[in-house]
Design a protein that fits this description.
single chain, alpha/beta, 8-stranded mixed beta sheet, about 35% helix
């Protein structure tokens, strides 16, 4: 990373995986499965991140608006519940709107560390926070947060209370077993005195989900299909993108929204002389987004090393925010 790009940050730690190799291996492995599957973490290249920002502005996608409004509503309570001078660690920093709402609500936060796999997005967010909060030390870690991350050696504030922040209901993209493992990683990073503020999408009427993940402007479809563009551009895949369609639906039995890329015809994707045949109607499963009741998420948190100090939801009970303490 060019020093000029990070000069406003206290430090930058790059433990980003070799994305092209990882993406190549994940695609070849995923397309070889009986149910072809590619992890949703590969949505977020630079183009994918920009498309997701558009999704957040659609009238159907309630999650971002609801979470931001809820964060603003609970600012006074957060001020009284969070230790003054805490170090804030944000997982998966996207738009800076949410972290600004949080930092503005906390009693004199001393440090902010942003963690994200998308280096360009990460640096932009961290630099924006540095320019807006002159009294806060700002740093960035480029990493896959689904792997364990140690407290940076350059962070010389071991004694401070740590507050992890994970907005956006991204926890729902993980299978319950993966979500539990991730929560354990967070528990390790924040330490015995740490706390964790997390956004979680709640169970509700299936039609609300089906509208949210099939917006009329087609941004979610573009977001999903961007995986195929990445395969074509980065892996030199021989693929007819126009013959795939976006499909998203709520699987009530499993309590999750599923996203798929459906092959509209019988066809073959070829990558590096390897062929992956598709029957008409066959899909690549690209995302699960699990939804939780308060009881379900509280039980998951407890199994993973956290107890819920307080939880909030909007008037419609669409979205929940949980403040949890390490146990």
């Amino acid at each position: 990373m060019d020093d000029e790009n990070i000069k406003d940050l206290d430090y930058f730690v790059d433990i980003q995986p070799k994305k092209k190799i990882e993406f190549y291996e994940a695609v070849l492995e995923g397309l070889s499965l009986p149910q072809k599957t590619i992890s949703p973490k590969f949505f977020y290249d630079e183009r994918g991140s920009k498309i997701f920002d558009k999704i957040c502005d659609t009238p159907e996608y309630y999650l971002t608006r609801t979470e931001i409004a809820l964060l603003n509503d609970i600012q006074e309570e957060l001020y009284s519940l969070v230790e003054p001078g805490s170090a804030v660690v944000e997982y998966g920093c996207g738009s800076s709107i949410k972290i600004k709402a949080l930092l503005s609500a906390l009693p004199e936060p001393s440090h902010y560390i942003a963690i994200d796999i998308s280096k360009s997005h990460l640096i932009l967010t961290a630099k924006e926070i540095a320019s807006n909060y002159n009294n806060i030390s700002v740093a960035a870690i480029c990493a896959d947060f689904m792997e364990p991350i140690e407290w940076p050696e350059k962070a010389s504030f071991e004694s401070l209370k740590r507050l992890a922040f994970f907005p956006g209901s991204t926890i729902g993209n993980l299978r319950p077993s993966e979500a539990s493992q991730f929560l354990k990683y967070v528990r390790h990073l924040v330490g015995d005195e740490g706390t964790f503020l997390i956004g979680v999408d709640m169970k509700k009427d299936a039609e609300v989900f089906n509208r949210a993940y099939n917006d009329a402007e087609g941004h979610t479809a573009d977001f999903n299909l961007n995986l195929l563009h990445r395969m074509k551009n980065e892996l030199d895949a021989d693929i007819n993108i126009s013959e795939f369609s976006h499909k998203a639906f709520y699987n009530e039995k499993l309590g999750r929204v599923e996203m798929h890329l459906i092959s509209d015809i019988k066809q073959v994707i070829e990558i590096d002389n390897k062929e992956f045949p598709f029957e008409k109607g066959e899909s690549i499963h690209t995302e699960c987004s699990y939804k939780y009741s308060v009881k379900e998420f509280s039980e998951l948190a407890k199994k993973s090393g956290f107890s819920v100090l307080k939880n909030w939801s909007d008037k419609r009970n669409f979205f929940g925010i949980y403040l949890m303490k390490a146990i």
